[in-house]
Write a structure and sequence with these properties.
With 208 residues, the protein is an alpha/beta fold. The chain has a single domain, classed as Class I glutamine amidotransferase (GATase) domain (Rossmann fold, 3-Layer(aba) Sandwich). 25% of the residues lie in helices and 28% in strands. It contains six helices and twelve strands. Strands 2-1-3-4-12-11-10 form a seven-stranded mixed β-sheet. A three-stranded mixed β-sheet has the order 5-6-9. A two-stranded antiparallel sheet has the order 7-8. Helix 1 links the parallel strand 1 and strand 2. The longest helix is centred in the C-terminal third of the chain and has 14 residues. The radius of gyration is 16 Å and the shape is globular. It binds glutamine. Glutamine (GLN) binds next to helix 5.
Length: 208
């Protein structure tokens, strides 16, 4: 029997639609999360790319910061891409005044590490955890993981050694955009985590 996973995409700002479309393609039921009541119905959350300063502010305005922090502490699987990685980082550099994150990943992330939008680039990355085929990664004003703390593990790095994807328990943070390059393996990994956590027989989307 196939159990449909009900997962959320944080829909405050950013490339929400691309993530929602990819997750739906992979067979998940997708909820656009803007309110705590919506968060409570999902078994995992994707935090899209966009602008972390805006996502931070809106999450506080909408009363989502506390519930998302609690869900992360409770072990809910979360996949953050780009601004989403910044939102998952415990420590950030080049933040704006007063900028906050949800946290959970024991890493220091530097915002806008590759410069401006016009300096966006694509690269092939080796990600052994995802198999032999390289990951085609699009970097758009992305962050870099400057240091990986003891509790987190590196998933992917550029050829020069700069870390661009990390994992810690049920949290997956990547500095690029698989949702726009046809790369599905990170989202599959996320959905596997959601399935593993729900367990056989658990109702999809159980929040706790
Ligand atoms: N520069 C953005 C930020 O600081 C992230 C860019 C992106 O998500 N593509 O949030």
């Amino acid at each position: 029997m196939v159990i449909t996973q009900r997962v959320g995409v944080l829909a405050l700002q950013g490339d929400v639609r691309e993530h929602a479309a990819l997750l739906a393609e992979l067979g998940a039921e997708v909820v656009l999360v803007r309110r705590p009541e919506e968060l409570a119905t999902v078994g995992g959350l994707v935090i899209p790319g966009g602008e972390s300063t805006v996502i931070d502010k809106l999450s506080r305005t909408f009363g989502l910061q506390g519930p998302i922090r609690t869900a992360i502490a409770d072990g809910m699987p979360v996949l953050g891409t780009c601004a989403g990685l910044i939102m998952l980082a415990d420590r950030i550099e080049d933040a704006i005044e007063g900028q906050q994150t949800f946290g959970g990943l024991d890493v220091l992330v530097r915002r806008n590490a590759f410069g401006r939008q016009t300096e966006s680039f694509e690269a092939e990355l080796d990600v052994p955890e995802l198999g032999d085929a390289p990951v085609h990664a699009a970097f758009i004003r992305g962050p870099v993981v400057e240091s990986v703390g003891r509790s987190a593990a590196t998933l992917a790095a550029l050829p020069d050694g700069r870390v661009v994807a990390v994992e810690q328990g049920n949290l997956l943070g990547i500095g690029f955009h698989p949702e726009i390059s046809g790369e599905t393996r990170f989202h599959r990994r996320f959905l596997d985590r959601v399935a593993a956590r729900s367990g056989p027989g658990a109702s999809a989307g159980a929040a706790v």
